[in-house]
């Protein structure tokens, strides 16, 4: 039955092939319900995603004025790369990423490896305990860490006092402000990473471990030779995810240091924010955000390649 | 050997519990400080002490201790038959309670935090409902229908998943201004409806649904709209739950965009409101931490209720940390 109808349809189609556009319109009309289902998404997607993306690239070659924008070629990009603040922010963001991303992934791997052999109950308990601190907004986390870093009343200076260290003006000195933000990022548990690793570990074929155990491999050897290689795709995913996240670091900066002291904690997104919404240089801000876009892209591709090739 | 294994397991538990305690400490510090006793003086002190700003820091709300201390003193005074003393300690007990919870009273009376809470709730719920509906609709046709331009539309949407929010910050801001949505809640809701993740998630999920189910409904004479509601939506529920959680958390914690498009104090969301509280520099630290507590508790409750879906969403690559 079905084959019959489809052949008749084919015949019908071939007779109208000479009017190709007509049949396309027919196809579209026939599927009008599908387009209607897509319509709401497409409307918002075009207005608030597609147009803004194209517009961002156009703006980056323009000088924005309320009276009308003018084309300036690559001027915005040149200005961006000549600006000291932007260069510092690139460097700071880079350092921040290089330090915090490995810490995030390694901590997640170690904690997940410790939690995984425990029973189901313990697994879900620790999963919640490590994820809970990260479900709250970064604004809240930043507010309390700012207080914990307080020179006079902060708990950090109290703790290092036990070991005989002098109090440190953590966020108030240009040499300790960025390290303080990195310490904070490292000490916030990698809740998402732990959950993702745990899910991946529970999926590893148990017979691999059985075989290795029969061959006399120790627990550590099994971890090194089976668990870690089997987790490569997950590791890759987490490295990319956390790198992209770390290049977008913003909330801590605006809530804790405002980029200071000096430019010590300026990051790319904070500079974009200031350029656009404090100085209202929309063209320059767009150029900066296009640069951010390419950096993230390059990093993502680079990381994907290296981690995949090692596999 | 057995002994060794037991010891090993014990050490793992100790290590993990220690790490969990350390990681929960800042959150504990938020709650403890919101209940800390500010500028208080009892009969043994020469001058009032502000426990919020004391060195070394007080690791727990001192009011608890002080309350029981005053209670004991009152009992002692009553036993000794000293009326005046008993009344004094009774008043001190009241003072401790008042001062411990004073942050919450001030916050709800003098700031707009109640409005911010409701705004956050409203925006998160409206966006979640809208996203789940339109993304399930588009995910369905992209998974199950054949029509001209399908693949172009799908890839156009999916390819924007990698683009960071900051890239479109300025143009979206200009778009919002052009549409005269600046300083309205629509400025937060509409751009979120353009996100690609939900379409991707729903399409992947619905691809696995057998075509026969849809065909059968069609033979029964059901309209497309009816098929969507009676066949697709019930089957898509697990993915819809994950998408709801993802969207709700995203909207609730969203910060950069609200501080750009919202100006009016009455319209702010919780994170944006907390920022104005900190910027004002008038609020004491106790008050800031009280605000943080009010903002943190709904999300913690939400997480504990729907933990299962958080875990699912994370493994599907959904919920961002």
Automatic annotation (TrEMBL), chain A:
InterPro entries in the record: ABC_transporter_permease (IPR051393), MetI-like (IPR000515), MetI-like_sf (IPR035906)
Main localization (coarse): membrane
Membrane association type: Multi-pass membrane protein
Domain ABC transmembrane type-1 per the UniProt entry, residue ranges: 90-303
Pfam families, sorted: BPD_transp_1
Protein keywords: Cell membrane, Membrane, Transmembrane, Transmembrane helix, Transport
Organism domain of life: Bacteria
TM spans (from-to): 33-58, 94-116, 128-148, 177-200, 235-255, 282-302
Subcellular location: Cell membrane
Family: Belongs to the binding-protein-dependent transport system permease family.
Listed name of the protein: Sugar ABC transporter permease
Annotated organism of origin: Pseudalkalibacillus berkeleyi
TrEMBL record, chain B:
Assigned keywords, A-Z: Cell membrane, Membrane, Transmembrane, Transmembrane helix, Transport
Bilayer disposition of the protein: Multi-pass membrane protein
Transmembrane segments: 12-31, 121-143, 152-174, 186-206, 227-252, 287-306
InterPro entries recorded: MetI-like, MetI-like_sf
Subcellular location(s) of the protein: Cell membrane
A Pfam short name: BPD_transp_1
Domain ABC transmembrane type-1: 117-306
ATP-binding recorded as keyword: no
Family recorded in the similarity comment: Belongs to the binding-protein-dependent transport system permease family.
Protein name, per record: Carbohydrate ABC transporter permease
């Amino acid at each position: 039955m079905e084959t019959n109808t489809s052949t008749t349809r084919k015949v019908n189609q071939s007779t109208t092939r000479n009017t190709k556009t007509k049949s396309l319109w027919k196809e579209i009309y026939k599927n009008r319900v599908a387009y209607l289902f897509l319509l709401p998404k497409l409307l918002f997607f075009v207005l608030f995603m597609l147009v803004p993306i194209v517009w961002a690239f156009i703006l980056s070659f323009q000088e924005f004025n309320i009276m009308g924008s003018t084309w300036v070629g690559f001027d915005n990009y040149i200005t961006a790369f000549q600006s000291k603040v932007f260069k510092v922010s690139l460097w700071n963001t880079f350092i921040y990423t290089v330090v915090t991303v490995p810490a995030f992934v390694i901590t997640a791997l170690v904690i997940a490896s410790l939690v995984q052999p425990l029973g189901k109950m313990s697994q879900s308990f620790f999963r919640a305990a490590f994820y809970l601190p990260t479900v709250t907004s970064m604004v809240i986390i930043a507010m309390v860490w700012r207080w914990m870093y307080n020179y006079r009343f902060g708990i950090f200076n109290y703790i290092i006092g036990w070991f005989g260290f002098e109090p440190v003006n953590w966020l108030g000195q240009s040499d300790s402000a960025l390290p303080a933000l990195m310490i904070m990022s490292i000490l916030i548990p990698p809740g998402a990473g732990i959950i993702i690793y745990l899910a991946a570990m529970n999926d590893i074929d148990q017979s691999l471990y059985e075989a290795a155990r029969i061959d006399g491999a120790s627990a550590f050897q099994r971890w090194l030779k089976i668990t870690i290689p089997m987790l490569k795709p997950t590791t890759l995913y987490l490295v990319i995810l956390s790198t992209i996240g770390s290049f977008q670091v913003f909330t801590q900066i605006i809530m804790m240091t405002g980029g200071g002291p000096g430019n010590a904690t300026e990051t790319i997104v904070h500079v974009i924010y200031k350029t656009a919404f404090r100085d209202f240089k929309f063209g320059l801000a767009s150029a900066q955000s296009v640069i951010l876009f390419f950096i993230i892209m390059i990093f993502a591709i680079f990381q994907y390649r290296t981690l995949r090739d090692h596999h | 050997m057995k002994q060794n294994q037991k010891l090993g397991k014990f050490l793992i538990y100790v290590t993990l519990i220690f790490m969990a305690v350390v990681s929960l400490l800042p959150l504990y510090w938020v709650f403890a400080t919101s209940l800390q006793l500010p500028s208080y003086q009892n009969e043994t002190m020469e001058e009032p002490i502000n426990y919020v700003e004391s060195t070394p820091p007080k690791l727990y709300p001192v009011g608890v201790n002080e309350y029981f201390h005053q209670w004991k003193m009152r009992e002692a005074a009553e036993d000794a038959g000293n009326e005046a003393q008993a009344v004094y300690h009774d008043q001190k007990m009241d003072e401790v309670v008042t001062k411990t919870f004073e942050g919450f009273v001030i916050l709800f009376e003098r700031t707009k935090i109640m409005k911010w809470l409701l705004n956050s709730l409203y925006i998160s719920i409206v966006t979640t409902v809208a996203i789940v509906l339109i993304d399930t609709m588009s995910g369905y046709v992209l998974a199950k229908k054949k029509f001209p331009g399908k693949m172009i539309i799908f890839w156009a949407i999916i390819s924007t998943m990698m683009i960071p929010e900051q890239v479109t910050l300025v143009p979206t801001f200009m778009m919002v201004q052009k549409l005269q949505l600046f300083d309205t809640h629509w400025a937060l809701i509409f751009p979120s409806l353009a996100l690609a993740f939900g379409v991707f998630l729903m399409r992947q999920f619905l691809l696995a649904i057998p075509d026969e189910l849809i065909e059968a409904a069609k033979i029964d004479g059901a309209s497309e709209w009816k098929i969507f509601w009676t066949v697709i939506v019930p089957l898509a529920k697990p993915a819809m739950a994950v998408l709801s959680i993802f969207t709700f958390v995203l909207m609730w914690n969203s910060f950069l965009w609200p501080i750009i498009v919202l100006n009016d104090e009455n319209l702010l969301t919780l994170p944006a409101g907390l920022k104005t509280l900190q910027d004002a520099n008038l609020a004491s630290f106790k008050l800031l931490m009280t605000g943080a507590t009010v903002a943190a508790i709904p999300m913690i409750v939400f997480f504990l209720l729907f933990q299962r879906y958080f875990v699912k969403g994370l493994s599907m690559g959904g919920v961002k940390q």
